[in-house]
Give the backbone structure.
Amino acid sequence: MSNYTKTTNFATKDSLPAGDAAKKVKGTEIDTEFNNIATAVATKADSSAVANVAYTTGGTFTGNLVLNDNVKAIFGTSSDGLEVYHDGSDSVLKDSGTGILRYESDVSAVAGTILEVKNINATSGTGSFIKFRNAYNTDGTAPYLGGIGTQLRVYANGGESARFNEHGVQLNGTNALITAGAGTPEGSVAAAVGSIYTRTDGGANTTLYIKESGSGNTGWVAK
């Protein structure tokens, strides 16, 4: 697409003295300008039709495509597939057709991250959450996963069910820990009363340990 570029500045001819050959307007000058205009018009989109333009064989955008609130990008024949839109409050990814919403990646799980949930506005004590809603639960009872700091937490029915961290697993929002390792936990593993430790190099009566007393790394009893 080309813009119209003026070849002859006719306004400058007005200031030329009478008798100056350049003061005359030539037919060739007018013809050149009409050709310039014709070229520009022929290579520009009709502005009145831009709103309804559609590419049936593909197209490439080099700028942002802005869709107003509640204007949907719909994927699928007969508009029965995936909808992506913003409703004024939330951004919505809706699978409204048959089948399931499936995520696929060509990246090997060994090579690196294939899916990341990131909350760039998270502060200390907050994180990123994935909630599982259906017709049989409410917003307050729906189970969800939360990534808080270095921990992965599981919530159900409004309460914390499990917390996974570098030490092991804590259940039902308590400090009781389920963990494992080599060697005895006595004097080396700090945990709350009620914690469980399985020893990977243990033998008879030295494989399972229960934390029965204390708040530090002592009070473990082999079972």
